[in-house]
Amino acid sequence: MTAEATASRPSRSGLRWGRLLLSDYAVLVLSAGWFVGVMPLAPGFATWENLANLVGGMLPLLVVATGQTLVLITGGIDLSVTSTIALASVVGARVMSGDSGWLGGSVLAVPAGVAAMLAVGAAVGGLNGAAVTVLRMPPFIVTLTTMMFVSGFAIWWTQSRNIGGLPAGFVAIGARTLPALLVALGVAGAAHAVLTRSLAGRWAYAIGHNPRAAFISGVPVRRVTLLVYVACGCGAAVASVLYTGRLEAGSPVHGQRILLDVIGAAVLGGTSLFGGRGTVVGTAFGVLFLGLLDNSLNLLNLSHFTIMMTKGAVILVAAWMDTVRRRLDTA
Amino acid sequence: MIACRGIVKRFGGVPVLRGVSFALSGGRTLGLVGENGAGKTTLMNILGGHYPPDEGRMWLGGVPYVPRHPQDAARCGVAFIHQELNLFGNLSIAENLFLTAFPTVGRLPCIHRGNLRRRAAALLEEVGLSAGPDTPVERLSAGEQQLVEIAKALSLDARLMIFDEPTTSLTRQETERLFARMGQLRVRGLSLIYISHNLEDVLRLCDDIVVLRDGEQVGGGPRAAFTVDRLVSMMVGRSITRLFPARAAPVSAPPLLEVRHLTQPGMVADITFTLHRGEVLGLAGLMGSGRSELARILFGLDPFARGEIRLAGRPLRPAPRRSIRRGLALVTENRREEGLCLEAAIADNLALVTLAAHARGPFGWLERAGLRRAIEGVRGAVRLTPTAPDAAPASTLSGGNQQKVVLAKWLLARPAVWILDEPTRGIDVGAKSELYQLISDLASEGTGVLVISSEIEELFGLCDRILVLSRGEIRDELARDAFDRERVLRAALGERPRPGVLS
Amino acid sequence: MGPPENRDAEAGKLTARTQAIMKRMLPMLRGIGGLALAAVLGLSGCGRPGGTSADAGGQGPMTVGVSFETLQTEFWVAALEAFREELGKRNMRMLEAVADGDANRQLEQVKSFITRKVDGLVVVPKDAKTIIPVLKSANRAGIPIVLFNRPPDKSEARSVTVVADNYAITRATVDYMVRQAVRGGRKHKAMILIGDLGDINSIGRRDGFDDVVKAHPGAIEVVARIPTEWNQEKALAGVVNALQAHPDTSFIFTSSDFLFPSVVSALKSAGKYWKVGEPGHVWLGGFDGDGMAYQMLVDGYLDADGVQDVYFEAAAAVQAIVDLKAGKAVPERIEDVGFVIHQGNVKEMAPRMWGARTRRQGERPPGP
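Predict the joint structure of the above. Result:
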C-alpha cells in the first residue's frame, strides 16, 4: 500500500530509490550495480570463464543458504550447518572411498554414500528440531552446541585426516559445473516452490511472524518447525555432496569457515533474522552478490584484510536494512 | 495556558489535520474525541514536538510555542501519560521518576540515594500512591503505574498534561482513583487534555470538548452542549440509531457446549454452564476473575485438572488443532500478540486457520484460486475495508479492521462455538457497531457465542444471558430480563447472590 | 461516511509516517553507500607494486598468483611478504588471495587466477588431499604450480613442493646446543615440547631432537616429553608440572617458537629464567625463527633457534616457476635446510630470520 502511494508521486524519486534499496530486490540491484562498476576496474572480471568459475564456486553455498533461509523464516537459526557439511562429508567418504571405504569399489557405493550423507543431514537437523520444539530451547544455543559436538565428533572420528579415493561418479556431481548446477537449482527451486505454493511453506511464514497466533490458529507449529530443521540439515548434506565432490576428498573441516557467508547471504537477500520474511530467490541473489564481491575484490588485488573488512561491512549494512524494513512495516 | 489556531498537517499531500483550533486555560480539562484515524494522535504529536504543523500557530502560557523535539516540549512543561506505559519494569519507582535527571552528590557523578528516595516519596504522596520508592515498577498494577507516570510528569514541572486513553488497562476502581487525581491536578492549576473512546468518562471529566472527524474539527464547546448520542453522531458523521442490533430471544435451543465442574487450581474453580445453539452468553467479571483463563482452557491453550467439556454432545479434550476441528473458534483479548501476524499480508492472516482445507496431494500444494475466492468472500462478509489490498501487512489496518480480520479468519472455518475475549477493545464506535451486528448475525445462524467483556453496557446490549465470575468461580447468572448493573457489579466484587438465583 | 473513509485517513497517516522515516534515513543510506565506495576505491588505490591489477598474460612482465590458506599467524604474513619482495625484485607481478581456511574458496581463487592466465601459481594448500583438484586444474591449463610448505598426497597431478626440512633443521639446532652445553663434561636433564603428532612437521622435529640426544648418552638425559597438541595452555601446564617433578632440569627444546611464552612463564615462576652465562641458566632452543625468539636472542635468554629460511623458500619457489615456464626440469621436492641462529651469529644471520624483520617493523603486519 505504502509502496504504491509512494510510487504514484514521481517527484519523490529519492524516496522511490530508498524504497527499492529496502525492498527484497535491493541486492539484485546492488549486484548489477557492483558488476557494472567493477567491470572496468578489474580486467578479466566479466569473462565467461571467470563468471562460470564464480558460479561453480557458489553452488554449494546456495544450497546451504537455501536451507538456512527456511529456518530463518520460522524465526529460528541453524548454526550447525557447517559442521553438518563436515560430518556428512566424512561419513560419505567412509562409505564410498575406494581406498578404505566400507563399500569401496561396489556399484552401490555412490547411491549408498549419498544416502548416508543425507541421513546424516536429516539426523542432525532432527536433533536440532527436537531440541527446539520438544525441549523448547532457544535455537541459537541448541544449534551452537550441535555445531561444536558434531564438528568435534567428525574430527575425532577421522583423527583430522581427510579421506580420498572417492568414486569418479560421485566426484562428477560436485566437480562438473552442469550436474552441480542442476542439483543446486533443483534444491533451490524445490524450496522456493514449497515456500510459495505449499501449505507447509505458508505455515512456516506464519510461525515466523507470530508463533502464538499461528498456534492458536491451528498451525502445527512443532511439526513444521521440526520439518524445517530437518530440511535445513538435508540442505547442508546436499551442499556437502557438492563440496566433497569438488574437492575430491571427505574432510572433517569442509565448510568450517562459511557460516558467516551462509547467514550473510540470506540476510543480504532480504531474509529477516526476526522471522516471517525471506525468499529463496532473495537468498540466491544474496549468494550471487557475495560471490561477486569475493571474486571482484580478489581481482582488484586488494589485500586479504581489506576484503574481510569490506565483506563484514556489507553484511552489517544488510542486517541494518533488515531492521529498517521491520521498522517501516510496523510504523 | 495552551492555545492552537488553524493547525494544518499533511503527510505526503494527504491532509491529516485541516485547521484545528482550541484554547485551554489553567485548571481546566479538554476532552478530545474522534474515531481512530481522525487525527487525534497527529495533533498530540504536534503538541509533543514530534513534528511541526504545516500551518497554524501554538501558544503556551501566552508565548508562542514552537517545540522542535520532544525534549523541547518536556522542557516547556508538556507531559504525556500514554496508553502504553513508558516505564522500565525492572527499575524501582524512584529510578523511573528521575531517570533523566538523577539527583547527584554535589557535582560528583554519583547518585544521591537518600535524596532520590526522599524526593520520590514526596512525589508519590502527592499522587496518592502508597508504594515505597524502592518498589520495582513491574510489581505495581496498571493503575499504580499510571500514577507513577503522573508523578514523573509532576517532577518535570508539567503545566499541560495530556492523557492518551489512560484507562484502557485499568479496573473501574483504578479508573475512579485516576479521575480523583486528575481533579486534584486541576485544582493545582494544571491544564489537562483527555483523549478517550469512553464518551461517558469524557463528559464526566472535561470542561470543554473538541470533536475531530477525518482531521476536521467538526464540533467543540463546553461540555453542557453535548450528550453521548450527539458526540457519537458527530464523530461518525451519521447518527447511529442503535449501537446494538435487535436480538430475538432464542427459543429453548439444544445445548451446544456443556461445561461441568471445570477446575484448574489458581485459575478457575468448579465452573458449570451450558451454551445453547443461537445463544450469546456473556462472561462478566473484573480483571483477573478467571474469564480469559476460562476461555483459554476451553480452547485448549491451558490445561485443566478436573471437570468435563462436551461439544455437541460428545466429550472434547481441548487442544488448538482438535478444538478447531470440532468447531471451536477463539478470538483472544490481545489481537496484536495472539490474534494476528501483524507484519504478514492481510490475505495470509485471513487464510491462516483454513489453509489446510485448500491443500492438495501429498505435498500439500495450495489450490490458490479457491483460496483467493474464499478470501474475497469473507472480506465481503465481515465488510473489511475494500481499500486495503490483500498483500498489505495487517499492521496497516485500523484496530477495527484488524479485529474484522481476526473474526474473518475464524469465520472461514464455519465454527459452531465462538469464544470472543474482549472483541471490541480499542476499537472506535463505528467499527464497534458493525462488530456487534456481526456477532448477532453469527448467533442467529445457529452458532453459540461466548463473549467476555469489561464493558457492562456491551454485555447488556449483546447477550442473552450473562455469567458473572469472581475469583475463578461463577457467582451469578442473569437472564436478559434480569440484567442489572448493580447486581453484576456486586457479584463481580465477590458477593454471594441471594439464595435461589442460581438454579 | 464510514469505515472506508476512516481507513483512508489512516492510510495517509501511515504513508506519511513511512515517508518521514524514509526521509530521515535517506541521507544515511547515501552516506553509507558513498563511504563504502570511497573505502574500496581508496584501499585499492593505495596498493602495492602490482596493486593496479592489469590483466595478466600476453606481453610484459610475468604474473604469479599466490594463494595462501590463512594469514592468521605471523609466519604466514612474513611468508607472503617474502613472496611480494621476491617477485618485486624480479620485476614480476603478484596476484594474491587468501582462502581463510576454506578449501572450496581456495579452489575457486586458484581457478580465478587460471582464468586470468597467470604465468605461475604458488599455493599454500589447505591440506594434502583437497589440493589435488587444484593441481589438476592448473595441470589442465598448463600453468606451473608450486606448493609452499605442505606437500600434496600422491596423485597423478604434477607439482613442485618447497618445504622446510624439519628434521635437518632441528637436528642442526639441537646439535649446536648440545655441543655447547656438554662442554667441560657437564651433564643435563632435558625436556622437549612436542607438537601435534598428527602433523608431519611435529614428527620431523621430534625425531631430529631424539637422534641428537641419542648420540650423547650419559650427557643428556631426557626427563620429560611434553605433548602440547600445539596448544599454549597445555604447554604451560606441562612445563610447570615437569619443572616441579624435575627441578634440576637445565635444557629445554620446544618444537615451535610460539610455545615460548608458556616456557618462559613457567621458568619465571620457578625462578629459573636466567640469561646465557648467568648461573642457573637453562639451555633454551626452539624452532621457527619468529619475533619472540629473535627478541630472546637479542636479550640474551635464548641459546639457539632453528630458522626456516622463508626468503630462500620464496626465491626457490619463484625460480621453480621460471624454470618450469622455460621448460627446464625441476625436482618434485625442493628442501630448505634452513639455518641455526645462535648467540654467536645473531648479528650476521638476523637479516635472514623472518621473525627479526617482523619484530623490527614493530610487529605491524604488512598490508593495508
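Chain A touches chain C through 63 residues (CB under 8 Å).
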